Amino acid sequence: MSEIQTLQQTMSADFDSRNLDWYIDKLVQSVVFFAGISAIIFIIGIFVFITIEGFGFLLEDFSFREFFLSPFWEPSDEDAPEYGILALVAGTASVTGLAMVVAIPFSLGAAIFIGEFATGKLREFLKVLVELLAAIPSVVWGFIGLSIMNPLIIDLFDVPVGLNVLNAGVILGLMAAPIMTSIAEDALKAVPDRYREAAEALGATRWQVIFKTVLPAAKNGLLGAVLLGVGRGFGETMAVLMATGHAVNIPGSLFDPVRALTATIAAELGETAVGSPHYQALFTIGIFLFIITFLINLTADLIVRGIRKG
Amino acid sequence: MFAESELNIRNKRVQNLFRILFLMMTVLLVIPVIIILGMLITKGGSIISIDFLFTYPTNGMTAGGIFPALLGTVWIVAVALLASVPLGVAAAIYLNEYAADNWFTRLIQLAIINLAGVPSIVHALFGVGAFVIFFGFGTSILAASLTLAIMTLPVVIVSTRESLRAVPQAFREACWNMGATRWQTIRRVVLPNAVSGILTGVILEVSRTTGETAPIMFTGAAFFLPFLPQGVFDQTMALSLHLFVVATQVPGVPENLPYGVALVLIAMVLLMNSISIAFRMYLRGKKKW
Asked: For residue range B199-212, what is the model confidence (pLDDT) as tens digits?
């Protein structure tokens, strides 16, 4: 390709073909370049704009100790508003943690079955099914948590309210599993077939090939899939807003209602006056969420890239 | 030919055991969702009718249809596509046809991955800060659509790039050798060969945009409006937010109403996805090179 480029350059120098087409070409090149860097601009833009909106709070009312260590989120208290996100972080973490307990075994198991055992039509069918499951909108999942899981949990465990860590965790797990399955399946597919052939030539059975050869080789990709699942659980909004019970609370059991960071923003932003400390505090939570998910995605990317190079 | 040794038999048994175990895991992943979808259909199916789709909500949203929400979703999705498809396709053209394989391109890719990974509620905050307040669009279809456009941009970029990559390099080289410029090559050779692949990505984006709720909550979608939007600076109702509202915010809603809304929403999304998948398979079968 580079040879052709040089050839093209020398040719255009020789014939001085700077006609209209040449200028159009240059113009298009700069247009698509700006489109190309738009993703970078947007990422920076997101950070800048949410920081601008939350800046007043960061300067005046923000106290590192209170924000991260206080379990009290009472922004509308008139005398002494408190902005502690500890309970919200605990809510997000407990729900995401349970979601991963649900999603990791099933999505990795499903990925292994689809990638290593299933063949032909069955494989195609399962892949399409997983893709369709991944497309179900989060607000529908939230509604399922609210109207189907809620009475189910009340019946099964004899508890007064079914909107709690268990409900949101299972919903979020079901939601994240299809995406994790397809990423994990990609990671298994990235393991070259000669690894499998070599292991089989040594007399390994199918499951030995999978456990001793394929899984170790795909380890990083699988870890990346899990991390992306965590990132998704962390950032999920509508489902956790509707299924957690929305009570500021550090959970002591699976049946405690909690409140997530994302859900707090979604529930309260509409009620606050633009520019008020409460409004700015919500944007500060947004900055925190942005940084956390950025780090998770960055780590996942580095881990997945790591194997591609090595 | 060979007698089955004890080891052979044991290995086979273990293998079958694992096969069944993993099959069970796959089935357990899928079954609950199938059951849930079945429940949505049985509980919400009774309310779905032409009237439900094409009339206004009445009695404080406890009766009537979903027409304004349906139409609002079409508005929001259409405007979001107008913004994100040209931008996303151009970005993919840059990445696949122009960009060198260096740290800068890696940086762009990292930004795209992160754009897809930023929580939807953070996109919503950005939409409020940038489009509603800074650019002064107010809470409007324009602000909501642009927020969604940025959020779903990675879908368009990634799928377009895939289909550009699938066009063989020899096609481009042949065209360059005829004296065509880079852009002429892209426009006459690369894009025509990739256009159907790009289209599957666009359909996928429509499906994503249709279901998103959090990014439009504060940027342009309203709980209830008695009139239809007249232009991009109006607020509108939207189907996804309407589901949230009738499920959580309105007292006295009959049980089958939110199920019906959920059913319509999920049907739209899954239909769009199925079209995209079917289209992709058809193209794979038709591929000449």
From this structure: 888 998 999 999 99
Question: What is the average pLDDT score of chain A?
Answer: 88
A280, A194, A284, A234: which is closest to A95 by C-alpha?
A: A234
Query: What span, in angstroms and rounded, lies between the C-alpha atoms of A90 and A173?
Result: 17
Instruction: Give tens-digit pLDDT for B241-257.
Output: 999 999 988 888 888 89
Q: Which contiguous run of DSSP H or E holds residue A64? A: helix A64-69
Nearest to residue A138, comparing CAs of B271, B65, B169, B241?
B241
Eight-state DSSP code of residue A17: -
Give the minimum alpha-carbon distance from A235 to chain B in angstroms, rounded to a whole number. Answer: 4
Q: Structure pTM? A: 0.89
As for the ipTM of the complex, it is 0.89
Given an 8 Å threshold on Cβ–Cβ distance, is A137 in contact with B265?
A: yes
CA distance A78 to chain B (A): 25
- Under a CB-based contact definition with an 8 Å cutoff, are residues A150 and A163 in contact? yes
* pLDDT at res. A306: 65
Best of A112, A136, A242 to disrupt the B interface by mutation (most B CBs within 10 Å)? Answer: A136
Q: Enumerate the residues of chain A whose CB falls inside 8 A of the CB of residue B94.
A: 32-33, 35-36
Q: What are the angstrom distances between the C-alpha of B268 and each of A136, B44, B272?
A: 10, 15, 6
Q: Note whether A278 and B113 are within 8 A (CB).
A: no
DSSP assignment of chain B, as one string? -PPPPHHHHHHHHHHHHHHHHHHHHHHHHHHHHHHHHHHHHHHHGGG-SHHHHHS-EETTTTEE--HHHHHHHHHHHHHHHHHHHHHHHHHHHIIIII--SSHHHHHHHHHHHHHHHS-HHHHHHHHIIIIIIIS---SSHHHHHHHHHHHHHHHHHHHHHHHHHTS-HHHHHHHHHTT--HHHHIIIIIHHHHHHHHHHHHHHHHHHHHH--HHHHTTTB-S--SS---STTS-B--HHHHHHIIIII-TT--THHHHHHHHHHHHHHHHHHHHHHHHHHHHHHH---
User: Which residue in the set A126, A210, A231 is minimally distant from B117, CB to CB?
Assistant: A231
A28: how many CB neighbours lie within 10 A of its CB?
Answer: 21
Looking at the complex, report in whole angstroms how far the Cα of residue A304 sits from the nearest Cα belonging to chain B: 12
Cβ neighbours of residue B132 under 8 Å, at least 6 residues apart?
A: B138, B139, B140, B143, B218, B219
Query: Which segments of chain B have a pLDDT < 50?
Result: none
State how far Cα B29 lies from the chain centre. Answer: 22
**Dihedral over alpha carbons B224, B230, B232, B233 (to 10 degrees):** -70
The residues that bridge with B63 in the sheet, in sequence order, are B58
SS (HEC) of A94-123:
HHHHHHHHHHHHHHHHHHHHHHHHCCHHHH
What six digits make up the tokens of A301? Answer: 């990317």
* Residues in chain A within 8 Å Cβ distance of B126: 45-46, 49-50
Asked if B120 contacts A235 with a C-beta cutoff of 8 angstroms, the reply is yes
Q: Quick check: A138 and B211 CB within 8 A?
A: yes
